[in-house]
């Protein structure tokens, strides 16, 4: 694939590779993405706005220049303090590939970083020379004021021109909590929101603090995604419940939406209005409880985003799709082309669960494309039914409910 | 956060507001009135000392120092206000530029003075609305209501000699308000273009230095009219929002 090197959110030439529930691949201009959905489907997008989370400054003890990239919230997102897990690079900026960036000076607890009028203190080392927990001086409002003045959007070498904040904000950006853009949302124009309304396609949002996509360090990259804060509004939880009850599809715009919804679904009580930390990884072994389809970028095998795709489609299907992406010169990264992936038969196991539990809400086959192999897949998934049924109804709590740093806020 | 539930609750109670030009004249009165009715108010103005003074006089408000006519300030404002509020229900585009001071016929108006009026009175509200639209639409979806007030003028409708730059810019703003309102009705974001009338404000004093203050509205009076209009619109939107939410729960999509 080719790196998309210009910061254009919706280029007229943008393409969409569609993988249907039977694993068949088709291609389309991306502007027609809504044509693959049906009346009654529910589109859920991430309305997080992107912070200017890259700060250039100085490591006070050594006087050496550093770049800090905020990576995960460690204080309440609109709280009166500001604390983060952050990656620290040595000198240089985004124009050097992250793989080639020098390390920062050796960091110690209590070290200070100075970014103009903003000061951050290392409160904890996190078992990697580039990863620290930091606390910023001053109130939350003062932090945001200084960040707005001093911070830059996190950026990688494949986009040459410096990004402005408006390049990084999706059209629907509402709550500034993300460290990198929830870039699948670049697909959404306001005319699409209107079009969904006209077509009877539901539209709802949640807020998920998307973290770093890459660090340039293999050991750190293996730790991605870090824990990510998310909030599901009551109206969105209700819309998801309605879509499921009516056996319509839930279409996630971006991997962050999958992570938030599937994390919520794994918690006691399921998807309801709440603020939590998404702590799980999603990979080939993850049963999808809620999400039926995903709009996302074109991801390189091996990345955490690509791992997540394996929950939707088999490796055989994804390998075939990857060959098409390569052969046809699809563009990758945040301003690149997109994929629309409908979950294959494995995900349908939960429909059977519902059928067992309550025949009144049994889900019938309603895929946009004929699913000729669904029967086999469903049979193969049968062994998971008991576990799923138990988890769905809160009988077991093997989802780490006790160990997650999860704060539930009913009725938000 | 405190949570006083009262039987009759102002629709403005805990509404999340942003007022531009919030340290003088009408904007200052709007900050006071919104806050007095229980809203959470953030405001923008250019002069740091005046922002600090207003924030000190109106405890619990957030003052942001920025020039809305500077395009690089827009997302910095959005970041601060959305981070502080966690969203936005009401945007009041109040900051205005007269164009040439003293007022001048168009033939004597510098091109730069016209550009200045357009930058502050047309392009700035457009940019700020775009940057905050995601938050406003989210508020509408959640049934809180979402209102944009664009402060207009009779000069937006009538062609007054010597008010060319200001009048043309306010006419453009009024037109934008109507088109925005039409286009975003389905999303649930409502636009109000409100002419507060001639007020005893610093801006009016610049335009008409020898006006008799007794002929002019107190900015507090004009502010009350605008805040009442916002409260009414929010009440309507909240009702509509609830109906939409109810429908969403019980009906198949039509």
Draw up the topology in text.
The complex is a heterodimer of chains A (about 400) and B (about 250).
Chain A: E1 2-3, E2 15-19, E3 25-29, E4 42-46, E5 48-50, E6 54-59, E7 64-73, E8 82-89, E9 112-115, E10 118-128, E11 131-136, H1 140-150, H2 165-168, E12 175-178, H3 190-199, E13 202-208, H4 218-221, E14 228-232, H5 234-245, E15 250-253, H6 255-266, E16 274-278, E17 293-297, H7 304-309, H8 315-327, E18 331-332, E19 338-342, H9 349-357, H10 374-381, H11 385-392
Parallel strand pairs in A: 1-18, 2-19, 4-13, 4-15, 5-12, 15-17
Antiparallel strand pairs in A: 2-3, 6-7, 6-9, 7-8, 8-11, 9-10, 10-11, 13-14, 14-16, 17-19
Chain B: E1 16-20, H1 25-36, E2 40-45, H2 48-57, E3 62-65, H3 71-85, E4 90-93, H4 111-141, E5 147-151, H5 164-183, E6 190-194, H6 202-207, H7 219-250
Helix pairs in contact in B: 1-7, 3-4, 4-5
Overall description:
The complex is a heterodimer of chains A (412) and B (254). In chain A, helix 9 (349-357) packs across helix 11 (385-392). The relative contact order of chain A is 0.17. Chain A is globular and about 60 Å long. Chain A is of the alpha/beta class and 412 residues long. In chain A, a hairpin with a 4-residue loop joins strand 6 and strand 7. The two termini of chain A are 42 Å apart. In chain A, strands 3-2-19-17-15-4-13-14-16 form a nine-stranded mixed beta sheet. Chain A has eleven helices and 19 strands. With 254 residues, chain B is of the alpha/beta class. Chain B has a single domain, classed as Rossmann fold. Chain B has seven helices and six strands. Chain B has a six-stranded parallel beta sheet with strand order 3-2-1-4-5-6, with helices on both faces. In chain B, helix 1 crosses helix 7, helix 3 (71-85) packs parallel to helix 4 (111-141) and helix 4 (111-141) runs parallel beside helix 5. The longest helix of chain B has 32 residues, at 219-250. Chain B is globular and about 50 Å long. The model of chain B is unreliable at 1-7 and 243-254 (pLDDT under 50). Chain A binds chain B through residues 39-40, 47, 49, 51-52, 77-78, 140-141, 144-145, 147-149, 164-166, 169-176, 190, 193-194, 197, 200, 202-205, 233-235, 238-239, 242, 246, and chain B through 62, 64, 72, 74-80, 82-87, 131, 133-135, 137-138, 141-143, 183, 186-187, 245, 248-249, 252-254.
């Amino acid at each position: 694939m080719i790196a998309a090197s210009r910061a254009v959110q919706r280029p007229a030439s943008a393409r969409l590779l569609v993988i249907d529930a039977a694993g068949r691949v088709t291609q389309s201009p991306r502007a027609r993405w809504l044509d693959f959905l049906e009346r009654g489907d529910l589109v859920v997008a991430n309305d997080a706005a992107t912070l200017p989370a890259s700060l250039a400054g100085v490591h006070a003890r050594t006087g050496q220049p550093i770049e800090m990239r905020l990576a995960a919230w460690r204080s309440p997102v609109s709280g009166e303090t500001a604390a983060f897990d952050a990656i620290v690079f040595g000198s240089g900026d985004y124009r050097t590939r992250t793989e080639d960036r020098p390390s920062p000076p050796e960091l110690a607890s209590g070290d200070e970083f100075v970014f103009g009028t903003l000061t951050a203190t290392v409160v904890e080392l996190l078992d990697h020379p580039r990863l620290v927990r930091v606390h910023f001086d001053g109130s939350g409002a003062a932090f945001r004021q200084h960040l707005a003045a001093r911070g830059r959007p996190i950026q990688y070498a494949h986009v040459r021109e410096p990004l402005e904040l408006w390049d990084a904000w999706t059209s629907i950006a509402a709550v500034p909590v993300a460290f990198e853009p929830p870039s699948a949302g670049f697909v959404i124009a306001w005319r699409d929101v209107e079009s969904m309304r006209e077509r009877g396609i539901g539209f709802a949002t949640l807020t998920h603090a998307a973290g770093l996509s890459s660090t340039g360090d293999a050991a750190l990259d293996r730790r991605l995604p870090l824990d990510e804060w998310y909030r599901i509004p009551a109206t969105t939880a209700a819309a998801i419940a309605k879509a499921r009850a009516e056996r319509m599809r839930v279409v996630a715009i971006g991997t962050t939406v999958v992570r938030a919804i599937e994390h919520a679904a794994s918690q006691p009580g399921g998807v309801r209005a709440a603020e939590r930390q998404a702590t799980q990884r999603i990979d080939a072994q993850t049963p999808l409880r809620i999400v039926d389809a995903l709009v996302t970028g074109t991801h390189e095998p091996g990345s955490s985003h690509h791992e997540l795709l394996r929950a939707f489609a088999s490796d055989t299907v994804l390998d075939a799709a990857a060959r098409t992406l390569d052969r046809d010169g699809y563009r990758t990264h945040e301003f690149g082309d997109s994929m629309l992936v409908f979950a294959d038969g494995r995900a349908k196991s939960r429909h059977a669960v519902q059928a067992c539990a309550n025949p009144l809400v049994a889900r019938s086959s309603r895929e946009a494309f004929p699913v000729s192999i669904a029967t086999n897949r469903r049979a193969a998934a049968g062994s998971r039914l008991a576990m799923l049924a138990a988890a769905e109804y809160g009988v077991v709590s093997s989802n780490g409910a006790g160990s997650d740093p999860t704060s539930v806020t009913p009725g938000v | 956060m405190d949570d006083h539930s009262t039987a009759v609750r102002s629709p403005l109670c805990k509404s999340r507001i942003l007022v531009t030009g919030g340290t003088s004249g009408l904007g200052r009165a709007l900050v006071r009135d919104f806050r007095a009715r229980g809203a959470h108010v953030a405001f923008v103005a250019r002069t740091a000392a005046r922002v600090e003074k207003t924030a000190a006089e109106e405890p619990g408000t957030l003052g942001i120092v920025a020039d809305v006519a500077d395009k690089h300030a827009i997302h910095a404002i959005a970041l601060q206000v959305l981070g502080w509020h966690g969203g936005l229900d009401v945007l009041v585009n109040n900051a205005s530029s007269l164009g040439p001071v003293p007022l001048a016929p168009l033939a004597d108006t510098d091109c730069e003075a016209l550009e200045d009026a357009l930058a502050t009175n047309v392009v700035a509200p457009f940019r700020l609305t775009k940057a905050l639209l995601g938050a406003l639409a989210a508020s509408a979806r959640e049934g809180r209501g979402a209102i944009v007030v664009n402060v207009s003028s009779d000069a937006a409708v009538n062609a007054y000699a010597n008010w060319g730059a200001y009048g043309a810019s306010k006419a453009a703003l009024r037109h934008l308000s109507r088109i925005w309102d039409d286009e975003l009705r389905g999303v649930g974001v409502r636009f109000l273009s409100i002419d507060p009338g001639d007020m005893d404000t610093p801006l009016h004093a610049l335009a008409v230095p020898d006006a008799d203050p007794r002929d002019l509205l107190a900015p507090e009076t004009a502010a009350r009219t605008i805040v009442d209009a916002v409260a009414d619109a929010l009440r309507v939107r909240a009702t509509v929002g609830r109906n939409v939410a109810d429908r969403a729960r019980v009906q198949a999509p039509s």
